[in-house]
TrEMBL record, chain A:
Subcellular location: Mitochondrion
Transmembrane segments: none
Gene3D superfamilies named among the record's database cross-references: 2.30.30.790
Family: Belongs to the bacterial ribosomal protein bL19 family.
Predominant location: mitochondrion
An annotated GO cellular component: mitochondrial large ribosomal subunit
Signal peptide: none
Name of this protein: Large ribosomal subunit protein bL19m
Native organism: Bombyx mandarina (Wild silk moth)
GO BP term, pick one: translation
Source organism superkingdom: Eukaryota
TrEMBL record, chain B:
Coiled coil residues, start to end: none
Protein name in the entry: Large ribosomal subunit protein bL17m
Gene Ontology biological process terms in this record: translation
GO annotation, cellular component aspect: mitochondrial large ribosomal subunit
TrEMBL record, chain C:
One example GO MF annotation: RNA binding
Parts forming coiled coils: none
Taxonomic lineage of the native organism: Eukaryota, Metazoa, Ecdysozoa, Arthropoda, Hexapoda
SUPFAM superfamilies for the chain: ThrRS/AlaRS common domain
Protein name as it appears in the record: 39S ribosomal protein L39, mitochondrial
Domain of life: Eukaryota
Cellular component per GO, a single term: mitochondrion
Length: 305, 202, 343
């Protein structure tokens, strides 16, 4: 784990004020409700047509993707997978690992022998989740002192004290690496952000914000990746870039049934896994709900800045 | 270690899948590969039994199985599945066949939808392993005929008779030996007894 | 050519139905000539019978079986089940052993159909193959006779005697042959192998087994050189005055039938032993040689070990009744004689 933090108190306060304002604009709470209702109606329609009902247990896969094993048969081992799942549940009984997605804003407190209070808290937007089982990891990104900082955490790292979700939402893309080449305000979040608590039962909102990229040079060829969350990419592209993009397109890939199959865990296997872990996950969720309710009633909001 | 993709749900295929796909040597690369497989899958759905080289046949089999399982899972009112069928089946009427004929046929199936059988290799030809790929429940006669063994077949009659003959000869041998055995054993017994008595005496 | 002329002369006599004596002929016919003469007479008689059919009438044959049931319109007294098979496919032609008419009557593949009927083809893998097996065994015996006549040198006259009813459980098919010049012949292993090789050669010719019903007179005429057969013929013809003959290649023999369709349907085979049967010397026939063999139909795959068991068993003297029994009890004997000749 690499932690690179710079502290300069003066700039920090300025940044706080700025980011607070930005964050408010970036936040998407009110719009969410409408979208959600739309989705619900759509789902109802499709379900009417569809003869077979999908097992509700399978919905866990979005919130806990690390419980699914690596689809590559080279790395499959049913016993190891089972043991890992048991260990993961044990760890989840120790600390509360909340439900979050790429695009959510998290605050992670981790043991750090070199810092003053022996702990280190970092806030940032989750730009990537990867790995499965005990090796699951996520990366947080923030801009501190005009310097982009990314920290990669292991989800089941025993030195993690606390993982707090400040805002649960999804973005338009699965990976947000393009934030590295975007304007810094899109990945700047204040360290003293208040957690936003969604009303119970609402689906996870999708933040439709589109970021603006800085001019070239970029770290990757974003134009070739068919990203939804970038607004101004066209203005930086040369003619050659556009031609190359056309040449590099792979329109057949979405029809490559076996490629999809090799990347996923089939329903039958998933059902086994989820029916194995579901009851414990449910208990953990209930416990979390209780604690959040307490928090909403007890904690008085402190206004800063 | 990669995370499994969760955006899509697929049914498990009831056949062995190789960890890696085959490239199916082709000038046009992956696109040409898919084009080749489209032709084969179309042919399979159309003719229900085709003969192929093993590489292309096995790849096409996987795609055909996936296509049928998608069709069964989503039915014909699901737009993406319809798109998929349109892409994979080059002839329009086969899309109807897929949803109207094959889906009812395989809906309650517990085994794979297709079958791959090794084809005989012609002598003095190149070493290409041929296979026959077919949809289950096709109207053609079976390729592998399971003949129950019939006791009345001439080879079985002959072997049965030979077995009977052998047993009879053994039995008669034993019967012939019984008399001798009893004589032998009785004599040995008496000898033993004599020995025993002698020992006791001594 | 000389022989041909002689035969045509004979035929003339036959058609005139005049009396003739056969005594002279036996003297100068060698085995090979006798075979050819018989075959030629067979051809003539067959031709005559076909010409006698006269106006061609049609019959409807309803075929049952794969690929699908169908109705064939065939010629009465001319078309055979084999012709029906030719309408269907090559597979039917090659694999069919017997025809089953109306579900109960087993019919030779090369015997003309006489009336409208249903038709099924039977092969060695039929559900109830008893009749097929018997036909196979019978054919093997008949071919063993053909093999015996061909195998010896011209100096050794061969007179075929008879073969009994097919008994597959006895483990071997047999043919009793009279070899008058060989009084004490113990065949060596090499000689037995040579016999088997001759047998295989005959079978590889893949000739059809033709069937013909002839009158007693003609039959006597054909077998004039063979004293045993000419003794048996009146017995056989007692019931209806007809004798059933079969021809495979050149070889013509008496058998009640039915036989299989083609000699190519005989697969793995072995001539295993030649045993000597001796009897009383009243008739001048003191001994016969019993040729034994074992065979499997084509397409039957049997492990070499299993086949060696069958071969070992076929080497033992077959317990079928010897033709010499008649001396003790004339009545039983007659029956046997009948059976033997008709089988």
């Amino acid at each position: 784990m690499a932690v690179t933090l710079r502290k300069s108190t003066e700039l920090f306060t300025v940044a706080k004020w700025l980011t607070r304002r930005d964050c408010r604009t970036l936040s998407s709470l009110p719009e969410k409700a409408k979208l959600a209702s739309l989705e619900v109606t759509e789902k109802a329609e499709t379900s009417r047509r569809r003869p077979k009902k999908v097992n509700p247990l399978l919905e866990n896969r979005h919130a806990y993707p690390e419980f699914l094993p690596d689809p590559n048969p080279k790395w499959r081992n049913s016993l190891r997978e089972k043991l890992e799942r048991a260990d993961m549940l044990k760890r989840r009984n120790q600390i509360d690992i909340p439900e979050f997605y790429v695009g959510s804003i998290l605050a992670v407190t981790i043991a750090d022998p070199h810092s003053q209070g022996k702990t280190n808290r970092f806030v940032g937007i989750c730009i990537e989740r990867k790995g499965c089982g005990l090796r699951a990891e996520f990366t947080l990104r923030n801009v501190v002192d005009h310097q982009g900082v990314e920290v990669r955490y292991d989800l089941y790292d025993p030195t993690i004290h606390k993982i707090q979700v400040l805002r649960v939402e999804k973005r338009l893309d699965d990976k947000l690496f393009y934030l590295r080449d975007a304007l810094p305000e899109y990945s700047t979040f204040s360290f003293d952000m208040d957690p936003e608590i969604l009303p119970e039962g609402t689906p996870v909102p999708i933040n439709p914000v589109k970021v603006e990229l800085k001019p070239k040079p970029w770290l990757e060829r974003w134009e070739r990746q068919e990203l939804q969350g970038i607004s101004n990419i066209e203005q930086y592209l040369t003619k050659k870039d556009k031609v190359r993009r056309e040449l590099r397109k792979t329109p057949w890939e979405k029809y490559d049934l076996m490629k999809q199959y090799r990347k996923t865990i089939p329903i039958e296997e998933q059902t086994d896994i989820w029916s194995e872990v579901n009851s414990q996950l449910q208990q953990l969720q209930l416990a979390r709900k209780k604690s959040t309710r307490k928090r909403t009633f007890s904690a008085p909001k402190t206004q800063l800045g | 270690m990669n995370q499994a993709e969760v955006s899509k749900l697929v049914s498990k295929l009831r056949m062995n899948i190789k960890p890696e796909h085959r490239r199916l040597k082709n000038l046009k690369g992956p696109e040409g590969r898919i084009d080749k497989l489209r032709k084969t899958v179309t042919g399979l759905i159309k003719f229900e039994r085709i003969e192929l080289n093993i590489n292309r046949g096995d790849e096409a089999r996987q795609y055909a199985e996936r296509l049928i399982s998608e069709a069964i899972r989503h039915g014909d009112c699901h737009k993406p599945t319809m798109d998929m069928a349109n892409f994979w089946l080059l002839e329009k009427q086969l899309v109807h066949k897929l949803f109207k004929v094959l889906v009812p046929r395989f809906e309650n199936s517990t085994v794979s939808y297709t079958k791959m059988i090794k084809a005989p290799k012609a002598q003095n030809t190149e070493h290409t392993n041929k296979i026959v790929l077919e949809l289950r429940g096709n109207p053609y006669p079976d390729l592998i005929v399971k003949q129950p063994n019939n006791r009345l077949w001439i080879q079985n009659v002959l072997l049965d008779a030979a077995k009977y003959d052998y047993r009879q000869s053994k039995i008669s041998e034993i019967a012939a030996n019984i008399g001798k055995d009893t004589q032998l054993s009785s004599s040995s017994l008496t000898a033993n007894n004599k020995g025993g008595t002698q020992k006791e005496e001594s | 050519m000389k022989m041909k002329r002689h035969v045509t002369c004979l035929m003339k006599k036959l058609t005139e139905k005049s009396h003739f004596s056969t005594l002279q002929i036996t003297r100068f016919l060698s085995t090979q000539e006798a075979i050819e003469r018989r075959s030629y007479l067979f051809t003539l008689e067959k031709k005559r019978q076909i010409e006698n059919v006269g106006r061609i009438e049609k019959i409807e044959v309803q075929y049952k079986g794969i690929p699908k049931d169908c109705t064939l319109v065939m010629n009465k007294n001319i078309s055979t089940p084999y012709d029906c098979a030719r309408h269907l496919s090559e597979w039917h032609m090659e694999s069919s052993v017997l025809a089953l008419l109306d579900g109960n009557l087993h019919w030779d593949m090369h015997r003309p159909l006489t009336e409208s009927c249903t038709l099924e083809f039977q092969n060695y893998k039929a559900a109830e193959p008893q009749q097929v097996n018997k036909a196979f065994w019978r054919t093997c015996s008949l071919m063993l006779g053909a093999c015996a006549t061909v195998a010896f040198k011209d100096t050794v006259p061969v007179h075929l005697h008879s073969f009994p009813l097919p008994d597959i459980r006895s483990g071997s098919f047999i043919y009793d042959v009279d070899l008058p010049t060989l009084s004490d012949w113990q065949p060596t292993h090499q000689e037995v192998l040579t016999l088997a090789a001759e047998y295989v050669k005959l079978c590889r010719k893949a000739v059809p087994l033709e069937r013909l019903e002839v009158g007693e007179e003609l039959a006597l005429e054909m077998f004039v050189d063979n004293e045993h057969k000419s003794k048996q013929i009146p017995n056989i013809a007692k019931t209806n005055g007809k004798v059933i003959l079969y021809r495979a290649g050149n070889h013509v023999d008496i058998s009640r039938g039915p036989l299989i369709s083609n000699t190519a349907q005989i697969g793995r085979l072995a001539v295993t032993a030649v045993h000597k049967l001796t009897g009383p010397t009243e008739d001048g026939v003191s001994q016969l040689y019993r040729f034994q063999g074992v065979a499997l139909p084509k397409g039957v795959v049997l492990d070499h070990f299993a086949f060696s068991i069958l071969m070992d068993r076929a080497k033992k003297l077959n317990p079928a009744r010897s033709p010499f029994l008649k001396k003790e009890d004339p009545e039983i004997n007659e029956q046997i004689e009948n059976v033997a000749a008709q089988a």
